[in-house]
Amino acid sequence: MTGNHSYLDPDLGQRRLTRRAHKKSRTGCSNCKQRRVKCNEARPICDGCYQYFLPCDITPNLSVREASEDTRNSGAARKRGRPRKNWPIIARLEESPTRDGEGPENVSSPSHSTREEPFYQWTVDDLELLHHYMSDPDLNQGDRLMWQEKVPRLAFIHHHVLHMLLAMSALHLARIEPDRSEQLNQLADRHATTGIRQATEMLPRMSKDNCSGLYISACLACCFSFAQKPGPRNLLVVADGCEVSWLNLLRGVRLIIETYGLEAVFSGVLAPFPPPALAADGKDSEPNEPILEFIPWEEPLRKIEDMISSTSGPKQGIYTHAYHTLRWCFEETYGTAATPKPIITGRFEIVMVWLYKLEDGFVECLQEKHPPALILLAHYAVLLQTLQYCWFMEGWGTHLYHGVVGILGRSYEEWLQWPRDQIQVATE
Length: 428
Known about the structure:
By secondary structure, this protein is mainly α.
């Protein structure tokens, strides 16, 4: 039976006239449209997709200038009743900065504003890498509580950390499962490229809130560089005559510590500082480092000091700074002939100090292949050899020494004999 039945309910017509007002969403994502729910159009991912872990296809924001240019070029003025074709541009124009110094491209929903990078579609492969990272003892760097519990929690706040730890996990898994090495190496490169880019972009906005994440990302980027097989012209901080990409992040770490101090870095998820001496299970953590024998390092380094003293010009100060840092690393590792360390082990945090404190001028000297800089680098290879128990450090001491020899040749054999002997003994 058809027709107008408003007479059955006299108030029906009135209720139709007083329909509750609402704001339509014309630029919402396709997921919300398919589910027939209103999209709040939050960037970089709407709340609906965020709640159900769905990839959101909200159009990336343009700058106001770009949008205004697109509007001017869109053709004739819109007439009444004619549907718009440039709704995304209009929506972008309505965006406004939410924090000082940030443009529309950083606008996000208040419900998930802590995620500073664009939305990334995580996959089952990434879950496998995360599980491997949190469960394999080779990836805890001697501190399971720090690297396999606290750092993953930090990674859920700062996604550049998550990308870097997944990159490390992929490289390690590729060693265990060589049949999948091609796929895993591609995953590692993708995550490392994304993580280093995001962390580098965060450096200008460094603060106490994000310095912990930047510090950990820089450490993982350094480890990732070691974990990759060294190329024939890779001298650790210089490859094919160019500075390696992760060195800028390492400089950022130095700036973080000098600006905020280690107390700010090891706060929040990474707290307390200094870290506890006991492992998470209440027992003493078992050391992964093998016990080493003392080597007489003082006399060979004293000869280098004499060589540096005989040089002149502005580079003398650069070499002197690198020499004193190298000497400190040797003393902290081995002690001295008068007071050797009771237990000698290679410690990653000690050996990395030399790289951490490298000046830009010294890197330039390596790029220009100056002999004093290369000789110091060859002696640093002895310290790298103490870290062979780390899976990602295997072969680096030998590779670095032979790389220096290939550049300097036999004319500097006298200066390279001591590091050659020490590396040869260590490998045996």
